[in-house]
Every structure is written in structure tokens, then in C-alpha cells.
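dumping this here before i forget
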Amino acid sequence: MGFSAFPATAAWRHQGLRDGFEVVHFHRLGDGWRFTGCTTAVEEGQTWIVGYTITVDAKWATRRAEVRGHSATRVLEADGAGRWTVDGAYVPELDGCLDVDLESSAVTNTLPVHRLALADGATAEAPAAYVRARDLGVTTLAQTYRADGLSYDYRAPAFDFECRLSYDESGLVLDYPGIAVRAA
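structure:
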């Protein structure tokens, strides 16, 4: 599926599990994209803030993610073929992941949708280097996407979570049920 151009910026309102907001700016690079954003929320009575800069290559594989929390920063770097370092150390558990997924972010569900370019009815596994919001811990998250026009059936078995994600023409999430809804 071909997507239209990104807007200069987008925003989401967290809903359901947390109350907060995310804003991201898109920067076209010669051979990819850079997403620069920040997300804040109150969840289970605790506040968090996560700033991020994510760079993807021309094939939409994540190459670098700098993720900043209140008291920590994590730098994830990938070779585009599924090998990752976190803060400079090789992490074999992340082998095979081509995307980063930030627990705090709706925009990171854009990455696999663009990279996979699934035809209607097609399904693909999209394991991601998953960064938790509160402590910036990093682990692998198994995910599955099934295309249906501008909607995707999404599964994350580790959380026993399934939903239908709705996207706009540029491949940005409009509705992530129970998590976030597009605000701008």
C-alpha cells in the first residue's frame, strides 16, 4: 500500500489506561525519516514523560532511537538487518527486530505498517524492540499486523491484547482503542 506524505506534526490524546498527550514532528531525511516527539501521562497515579528521536532508513527499518525519561536515557541503535545495541552494548534478545515500539507512543505503530506495506488480507509478524515508559527498560515485543484497507488487526500476545488500529492516508494511527486517539 502506498501512503501519502506526512503532515509536519501530529498529536494523540491518551485514553483508557492513562491520561496524557503525545506530539511528534516529522523530518524527511535524504534516505529516511526522523520522528521527534514527546509524550506525557498519568497512569495508575504515577506521572511519566518520555521524549524521543527515532530515525528510520529508506526501507522503514529503525536505525536509531534516543529515548529520554525523567531520570534515564536509552540509545538504541540497529544495523537495519535485526541486530541491536542498547547504550552501546549488543543485545541478542532483540535479534530479528526491525522496529522500535515505545510503550508511551501511538506513532511507533506507524513504523511496521510502512515497512511491511501489506496487501489487504495479508498478515505479518513484526517483533519490535519495546521500550517501557516508566523505567525505559528494553525487551522484545512480539506483534502481528493484518491489513484491511486503512485498518490493521493488531496483536501483542505478551499483553493478551488485540484490537483494530485505524490509520489515515499517510499511515498514522487515528484510533488505537483503549490507548490513544488522534487529536491533530
